[in-house]
């Protein structure tokens, strides 16, 4: 223990019952810590930090601050997207400020929850959620390397959903009717002029701009995130020998997701390809797929503002639909068309488990799916159960059942011919 915790002296004494009891003391300061190991290690870390000064916080071995330093110097940290690392750095600074002097084993769930509550009060609920993600990622890394032995102690306040149920919460997704409503959106804008004149001279009606239409189609058919869509460039478009358009298929122009750094190759849906052709987008062009009217790249905040404006015009904002929901909506649409989980995951970039959880939440248990399952089972040759001797023979597999007979017509009314 003295190698792992320098200047910590352990004194072992046998009590009257013959049991060995350990007492802890600091070698330099001479401060006695008692026999409680957890309390002794916590006090030792504070004394060691006082000796080294604030600049030596990360040099104290075994503390949370030292583990954070090792995590940010590890290869795992380098694999995290730069945008995520930039987002997480302030939270790691807060974590080091509040818990850096403690030892990992002394960070109880109560202490972890208090840290998350502090972030929530000072910065808001969204910041608390990001802080929890960063802290759990760090804690999982530390546990995998034996630096800690406990589960991540960071969670939300009692009564909130756990991370697993939070990820599986069912949120509204886009349907075909929602897409049609959005594409047909109109809004009336003022063009100035004399208010005494007729209304048509003071106002004009705008239709959905091409950039919003293309962004929604890309989000739905490619199942990518907003940040990736705004960064997509026509240089990475290519056409294979069969005429299929691809994005990120060229070795010299690979496509990697900004958040996870995962490399994904995306075949372009025919409807999306037709929209590219309509808007004059060609493979190899040096332009962003979704760009402003002046040809510049969209800023994320400006894009959200413009998208929200047209969601209000289409009256879809009250339904809780978001641009990010297009990602799950496209995955559900691919699943309903018969695509398997590995195929959908290779397109969206999710893990197989995460893809399965999304499909489990959103795929409806409909009569159409049940009928398809029974029909396929009927057409298979795996099961053939012969009927009893006095039963009618079963109909051939694949043959549709006879339609139910119509009730006899009422007297005085003409009989309706059945087609």
Distance between the termini: 88 Å
Share of residues in strands: 5-15%
Report the count of strand segments.
8
Q: With helices defined by DSSP (H or I, 4 residues minimum), what is the helix count? A: 17
Question: Into which percent range does the helicity of residues fall?
Answer: 40-55%
Low-confidence stretches: 156-168
The topology string of helices and strands comes to EEEHHHHHHHHEHEHHEEEHHHHHH
Keywords:
elongated, 419 residues, 8% strand, 17 helices, single chain, mainly alpha
How would you characterize the overall build of this protein?
With 419 residues, the chain is mainly α. Helix content is 44%, strand content 8%. It has 17 helices and 8 strands. The strands form 3 sheets. It has a 3-stranded antiparallel beta sheet, covered by helices on one side. A 3-stranded antiparallel beta sheet has the order 6-7-8, with no helix packed on it. A two-stranded antiparallel sheet has the order 4-5. Helix 5 runs antiparallel to helix 6, helix 14 crosses helix 16 and helix 15 crosses helix 16. The protein starts with 7 loop residues before the first strand and ends in a 40-residue tail after the last helix. About 3% of the residues have low confidence.
Please specify the SSE layout and strand pairing.
Blueprint: E1 8-14, E2 20-26, E3 32-34, H1 37-52, H2 64-72, H3 75-79, H4 82-99, H5 109-123, H6 125-144, H7 163-167, H8 176-183, E4 186-190, H9 199-202, E5 203-207, H10 210-222, H11 226-231, E6 237-239, E7 245-247, E8 266-267, H12 270-278, H13 300-313, H14 325-336, H15 341-348, H16 352-362, H17 367-379
Antiparallel strand pairs: 1-2, 2-3, 4-5, 6-7, 7-8
Helix pairs in contact: 4-6, 5-6, 10-12, 10-14, 14-16, 15-16
């Amino acid at each position: 223990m003295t190698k792992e915790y320098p200047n910590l002296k352990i004194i072992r004494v046998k009590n009257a019952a013959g049991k060995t009891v350990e007492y802890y003391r600091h070698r330099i300061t001479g401060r006695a810590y008692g026999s409680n190991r957890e309390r002794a290690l916590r006090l030792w870390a504070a004394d060691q930090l006082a000796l080294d000064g604030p600049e030596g916080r990360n040099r104290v071995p075994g503390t949370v601050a030292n583990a954070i330093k090792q995590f940010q110097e590890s290869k795992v940290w380098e694999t995290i997207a730069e945008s995520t690392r930039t987002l997480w750095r302030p939270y790691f600074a807060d974590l080091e400020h509040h818990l850096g002097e403690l030892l990992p084993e002394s960070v109880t769930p109560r202490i972890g929850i208090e840290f998350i509550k502090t972030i929530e009060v000072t910065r808001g609920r969204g910041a608390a959620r990001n802080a929890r993600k960063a802290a759990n990622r760090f804690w999982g890394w530390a546990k995998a390397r034996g630096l800690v032995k406990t589960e991540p102690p960071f969670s939300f306040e009692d009564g909130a959903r756990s991370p697993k149920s939070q990820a599986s919460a069912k949120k509204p997704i886009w349907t075909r009717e929602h897409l049609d409503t959005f594409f047909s959106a109109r809004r009336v804008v003022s063009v100035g002029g004399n208010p005494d004149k007729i209304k048509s001279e003071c106002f004009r009606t705008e239709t959905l701009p091409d950039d919003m239409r293309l962004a929604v189609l890309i989000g739905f058919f490619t199942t990518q995130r907003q940040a990736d869509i705004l960064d997509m460039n026509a240089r990475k478009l290519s056409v294979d020998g069969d005429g299929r358009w691809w994005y990120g298929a060229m070795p010299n122009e690979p496509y990697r997701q900004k958040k996870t750094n995962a490399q994904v190759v995306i075949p372009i849906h025919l409807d999306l390809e037709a929209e590219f052709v309509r808007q004059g987008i060609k493979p190899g062009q040096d332009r962003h797929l979704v760009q402003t009217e002046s040809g510049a790249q969209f800023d994320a905040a400006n894009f959200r503002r413009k998208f929200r404006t047209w969601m209000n015009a289409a009256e879809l904002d009250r339904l809780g639909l978001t641009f990010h929901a297009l990602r799950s909506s496209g995955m559900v649409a691919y699943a309903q068309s018969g695509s398997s989980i590995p195929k959908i995951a290779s397109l969206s970039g999710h893990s197989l488990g995460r893809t399965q959880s999304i499909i489990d939440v959103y795929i409806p248990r409909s009569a159409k799916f049940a009928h398809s399952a029974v029909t396929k089972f009927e057409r298979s040759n795996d099961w053939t159960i012969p009927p009893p001797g006095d039963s009618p023979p079963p109909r051939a597999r694949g043959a549709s059942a006879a339609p139910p007979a119509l009730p006899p017509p009422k007297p005085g009314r003409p009989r309706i011919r059945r087609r």
